Every structure is written in C-alpha cells, then in structure tokens.
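Lab channel / #folding
Pinned by the channel admin:
"Please post every new chain as: sequence first, then the structure tokens as a reply. Keep commentary short and put observations after the output so the thread stays searchable."

First post following the new format, from NK:
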Amino acid sequence: MMQQINNWLSRDPEEKTREELQSLVDINDIEELNDRFSSRLQFGTAGLRGMVGAGPNRMNRLVIQETATGLGHYLIEHIIDAGQRGVVIGYDGRTDSLQFAHDTASVLTALGINVFLTTKVAATPIVAYGIKKFNAAGAVVVTASHNPPEYNGFKVYWENGAQIIPPHDSGIAHQIDIAATKSIPWMSLSDAEAKGLLVWLDDKYYQSYRNTMNNNPLLSNHTDPSAISIAYTAMHGVGADMAETLLHDAGFIHVASVAEQREPDGTFPTVNFPNPEEKGAMDMVIALADSVNAELACANDPDADRFALAARKADGNYQMLTGDQVGILFGHYLLNHTDASKQLVGNTIVSSRLLKKIAEAKGAEYFQTLTGFKWLTNVAMQKQNEEKQFLFAYEEALGYTVGSEVWDKDGLSALVAFAQLAAELSTQGKSVWDELELIYRTHGLYVNAQQSIALAPNSPPIGDKLRANPPTQIAGVNICATEDLKASLRYLSNGSTESIDLPASDVLIYHLEDESRIIVRPSGTEPKLKCYYEMVTEINPIDDYVAAQEKANAAMESLIKEHQKSL
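Reply from TO:
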C-alpha cells in the first residue's frame, strides 16, 4: 500500500490533501489508509459521489482530473465531433466545487474538447439545459446534491441531455482506470480561452434558461398568481436567484425567502442534513410560511433539481406532501391542461400506480421505469413520437420534470408549475388538499410508505432467499403475481409466466389480491434492504374522508409490520 500512497503523493496537485495523507501516514492510521486506498470511488450512472479527502476512494482534485480525462477520451471515442460540440460544465456552492469544475475544464480543453463553463454557481437543471441549447456532447455538474457537507460529486450527462445509463457508465469507468496510470492532460483556463476552447457562460446564459422557461406553454397558466402567498427556501443551495425570478416572472408577487438559507453555503449551518425529506429540514420555511400566512412552504434541495413543499390545511397547520402526492397532483393538472390523448407520462416502479390510473382515465399513454430519473428521461425519449409527446414524469424521491426543455428533474420549473396549480385551485376556492381528496375519491385512496432494514455488511442477499422460497401470502393476503426483475419475468398465481420489458435489476415486486403492492430491493449504496408499500382503498361518496384516511393508514401499518416480521 505504501507504493500506492507514494505514487498518489507524487501525483496529487493539491497541497492540502497531500498534507492530509502524509499526516495519516505519520500516525500510521492503517484503518483510515486502507479505507482510502483499498478501492476507488465507483463511477456509475450517477457519476461519482463521495466524501472529500485524499486518496482514490475520496473526492479530490486528482480523482476529478483522472475522471475528467477518462470522460474526455470516452466522449471523443463514442460521439462524432465531440471536441467541436463541447461539454457544458457547472457547479454548486460546496467548498471544493469551483476548483473541481475548473480542473475538469482544464483537462477537457487539453484534450481538444470545447468547454462551456459557468461563471458562477448554477442549479443542476440550468447546466443540463445547456446540452440542448448548444447541441453539446455532454455536461458535467460538480455537485453532491442533498448529501452532507463533507461530500461532493461529479454528475455526467450524455449528448441527449439525460443522465448517463449503461453502457456509458462502465465505459467511462474503464477509461478512468486507464487515466489513473498516466500523466494528466492539462491546459490553463487562460490558455484555453485564448485558443478558443473555453466559452464562459455569464448572465446571458442564465437569462436564456429563464426565457425558455417563461415561454414554456406548460408554465403559462397565469390564473391570478397574486391570489396566493409562497414561502421559499434554497436550503443553502444555488436555487434562490432563479427560483425567485421565475416566480416573479409568472406573476407571483407574494414570495418570501428564508434569509438565513438563501445564499449558497457548503457548510449548511442551519440544517443537520440538507435534504428536504429529512425531519426538521423544512422547519424554517414552514415557520416563515406561518408568519406570512402563506398557502405553500416550498423548497429546492441544494442543487435545485428537486422540489418539496408543505401546504396549509384547513386548520391552519402545514403538512408535507409526499413525492407521490405532488406527482399525482402534477399529472392530473397537466393532463387537464393539454390534449391528454396526445401525451406521454411516466414514473418509476417504486412510485405510486395512481398516475397510471389517471393517465388511462384521461386517454394518455403511461410508462414505467426502474428507479432513478436517468431511466425516466432516457425511456421517455425512446417512447415519444409524433402521436404521443412527452409531458411529465416523476419519481417519489421529489424529482419532477415538466415538459422536455430539460431532460432531467428540474426543481425550478416544478416550483413554478406547482405554484400555478395552487393559484388556479385558489380561484376555485380549493386547496391542494381538496384537490387530492377529489382525485382519491375518483380513482381510489392510494397510500404509500417506505421502510429500510439495516443489514450486516456480510449478510447474504435477501433477494436470493426470497427467490429460493417464494412466499404465496403476505399478511394473510394471497399474492396474485410476483415480478422478478432480475429474471425479467412475472410469475402469476395460476402458474403461468410473462416477460417484463425492463432492464434486469435485483428487485422483487409482489402484487396482492387486495391490490396492495410490496417492492423489495437492496440499496445500491448501503447495506440496507429497501421496502416500498402501496395500498389502495375505495372511498364511497358518503364515506368520511378523514375516517377513510385513518383506516387506510392503520391498514398500512399492519401490512408493514407483518411483512417486516416475515423477512
């Protein structure tokens, strides 16, 4: 290992990480050194993400430079005119993001690839938008999204504007391994600019994204926007300027921002975990909403590709909407404002089936993909045609894309679209909760929940155990179909099988006779088993809605308890 360490020290361009590594050697911290050098950060479909620090299993300047080198060689090899078409690069407000972005630009330009580099921090969707605008060969966003402060990441987009999917992930990873054994190509940014290889994306570029969204017909429903008030937080991220601008452009004049969380700050001083889904993360924006009597308390995550909100209820209290509830409201609203028969909408396998039911009722085409927004947009591009144009997709983890101006989740346009949805409902004397009740009464009350089970790092795969001895019942209810995505087969209770048109994945889906659904899959990043539950309950017109909700929630608790016990 010392040979690896010495080699690393000789290649690392950053004094800070060299000193950090040398101090670990000096105190002989074998455990920490093993953790940093026994493996390399794995490059996958989300690019790279990990803790910042010295060594190949951390995020640092050398890892970034090697990754950029591998990416550059792969683009040149697989995309015609990749060098001329170029790569868009942007970055979030984390401590090292600016340096990592500039390092990426220096490597790519040294390889003869044109670079479009933002002059300041940029929301992830604003960077992804640049691929379509410039017909670029790809994009890189230096961001760790909603991860803790000690993390950073390197997110890669392909020429079609979407996040990379196989086989590009493994192909790029192979090139990175080669790059780690060779000298790094390098060109200073001043030289790159002088040679015409570097274009700085200044405010004119950000205004282009702004104008594109303002001209998006799906964001043009200006139904008395001044009638509602909105509280907003950027959660110490990069979304505030554009979020507030787009809301103002759309006529929302009553918008209050959480001042303490408005400016980018990679230390995230007011939140334990900068993820809107985490307990307490929305406390400050909800408190602000309450103080100004706002209908909505909205948030973007730190790179502004996700959108979250709490909405005021009839009793004046605020309640978070789940990702599925927001997705259902979006789907219903957008299909009502378009010719649904010409639209294509989708969500992921772990998201609610209610979107499919709504789409079918409206005459729209529905599609479903594996977990991850990269699948939603790549599949949408494959499926859309002249008869069916892509309209909307979502995943339950707070990701939404409205239209096709950005082929990734976009928390900024989602914020504007939801504000317009709420404003329209307000003119009808309704809240978003009233609209949800109407949807549930029409199509059924869908309740969703998720549970994770921590596993020992060396525990055998539970999926293999379940496949070896498949259950026939869960919580006393018969299983009518089991979908095994690893085998790409659906096993029906009558003994027959059907093929499944999804990429192979270690996922088991159980469909019960009472319409409940249970999904079991291992976490891709931690020793955890993730279980997703969905129950469906019919509500009669005379049924009390609150009582129906309480009954459904109790049934869900019972289902989770019985299923977890069986595992």
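NK: The longest strand covers residues 445-454.
TO: also worth noting, The CA atoms of residues 214 and 220 lie 7 Å apart.
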